[in-house]
Amino acid sequence: MSYQVLARKWRPRTFHELVGQEHVQRALVNALDQGRLHHAYLFTGTRGVGKTTLARILAKCLNCTANGQGDAGVTSTPCGECDSCRSIDEGRFVDLIEVDAASRTKVEDTRELLDNVQYAPTQGRYKVYLIDEVHMLSTSSFNALLKTLEEPPPHVKFLLATTDPQKLPPTVLSRCLQFTLKHMPPERIVGHLAKVLEAEGVPFEESALWLLGKAAEGSMRDAMSLTDQAIAFGQGEVRHADVAAMLGTLDHRHVLALVEALAAVDAPRLLAEVAALAEQGPDFAAVLDDITGVLHRLAIAQMVPDAVDNGHGDREALLQLAARFTGEDIQLFYQIGIQGRGDMEHAPDLRTALEMTLLRMLAFRPQGVPRPAQTPLPMRGQGESGGAGSGGNTPPQDGEAPEKPPSPRPAQAAPEPPAEPPAASPPPDIPPPAPAAEAESAPSPDDTPPPWVEREEEGAAASAPAAPGGEPEPGMAAPSASHDPVATERPAQQAMAAPAAAEPHSPDPQAPDTQVAPAPVAEGHFGHADWLACFESLGLGGLTRNLAAHCVVEADDGEQLTLRLDPSQEAMQAEVHVTRIREALAAIGVERRLALAPGALPPEVETPRQQADRLAAQRHAEAIEALSRDPHVQKLQQAFGARLIESTVKPADAEARG
């Protein structure tokens, strides 16, 4: 007997042998078991996913005689032994009429086909019309089919299959029960190929099956045909090297070498790998696709290590590589890779485009980080982790001598000289947190406050003593301690101001009421209250400020300061940020080794970010209440039915600060 290809030899003959398409299998099995049979079924999907196979299995279920000759004999598990089942499997069943619509598109062919619909089946229980590639029929053919498709005789079933359902008229779609078959994922294809090759007694390598599964692009028939070709190419064996040579794919080791050069931030090595790769004359666009594919798997390895497949036999190598990247780097490299893929057509040549894309990945890495932090797997928190030990114990560098006292930063020197009550005001030497400053001070002279704010502030100024050495601007008097909504938030700031208030200072000509503060903690313990009070004076910005704003002081032994970091911000932890925070603390006199330890924060302790959000919410609520009491606003509400949109109430300096 002549050789039968694997795609035909291993075609499923029952629903239970079907690979994938569980959603279609379940609906058809239940309909057959319950006797709820439709007269027309439409199977859609790409090539090689089982449309014709499902139609033939359904035809066997409708005509199997193992349970009897009547309608009660319809079953979801055909026996495969009766005359009807064997005839359908062998392609000689008289009452299964298979039509290739691509070769019979004319209306005359359709009319000839429908002339025999009225006659009862010759051999089976039902006469089944299987029309493949039905979208190829002409418009006249569809029109001729409509009436019969809507009300066929009881003994007729229509099974239609197409790869392009958009070309079918809506009148045909509405008369059919439609099932859309899914693409086969590589994992399912590899599993099925392994079973087939084991049954065939063909030696194989799993990595070779992954190459075949990906090359099939979701089609099981394509995968079986490629497997036939691989067996012939490998002289009865399916090996990775043979399959790679047959498919013309690149050796995966070259791709991993390029990714390792990215992890090591080694540009000379990166260009050397590209040069070695160019000697093989590869498709550089495919090389970039493979690199982005590896980056995708690295991102999965960081988040869900168990979900990484062993498609190229490189699972362990990927897990090791994933620990050498930060989560941000992988996401950035992936984005640059896919954008570089689209720019390749505009480049002078493909090799140049690949080299520029890889160099762009290194150029856009965060500056100041010589080597990526080690990343624990799996990553915890809401985002990718940049590493638990990236900023651990960073010793102070030799020769660093922070200036004492430090000069205030220009952005933090307050231009306005408002009068503050001495008993409740924060120390002028250490600027308070931004939201607290907004709650305790009036708008800058450049802003024109609304009239109701002026009246309230004038009333507060009448009860507040005048500050010596400065004359406040009109409407800029600070509220007294009894009217200060955030007066209870100042004990820590007053404690920080105690040693500074006893020392003489020389006035700053640029800021008459602002004095330069000495180091807040020179020898003693640095606690969380000190951290909250001096946070703004650190002068941090960008990602470093955001990272520090989610930290609380956990311990200080005089040599090492340990900050507890909110786990949700662990992805931002990197050595460059830890170094900047340590240097900023040293600049205000807190010279310590700095360690950031991600972990759950105590619920009773407030981070600088939480404090700022709380004070901003208090200010917003007070502003809304003041506006609601304003007589002008009340008149507008009474006269015109106006309403106050609370989300638009913002601080006067919000735009400048944004």
From TrEMBL:
Residue intervals of the AAA+ ATPase domain: 37-188
Spans annotated as Disordered: 368-518
The keyword Zinc is assigned to this record: yes
GO biological process, one term: DNA-templated DNA replication
EC number: 2.7.7.7
Matching InterPro entries: AAA+_ATPase (IPR003593), DNA_pol3_clamp-load_cplx_C (IPR008921), DNA_pol_III_gamma-3 (IPR022754), DNA_pol_III_sug/sutau_N (IPR012763), DNA_pol_III_tau_dom-5 (IPR021029), DNA_Rep/Repair_Clamp_Loader (IPR050238), HLD_clamp_pol_III_gamma_tau (IPR045085), P-loop_NTPase (IPR027417)
Enzyme superclass (EC): transferase
GO CC, one annotated term: DNA polymerase III complex
Compositional bias segments (type: Pro residues): 404-435
Top-level taxonomic group: Bacteria
Complex formation: DNA polymerase III contains a core (composed of alpha, epsilon and theta chains) that associates with a tau subunit. This core dimerizes to form the POLIII' complex. PolIII' associates with the gamma complex (composed of gamma, delta, delta', psi and chi chains) and with the beta chain to form the complete DNA polymerase III complex.
Protein role: DNA polymerase III is a complex, multichain enzyme responsible for most of the replicative synthesis in bacteria. This DNA polymerase also exhibits 3' to 5' exonuclease activity.
UniProt-recorded name of the protein: DNA polymerase III subunit gamma/tau
Source organism per UniProt: Halomonas ventosae
Lineage: Bacteria, Pseudomonadati, Pseudomonadota, Gammaproteobacteria, Oceanospirillales
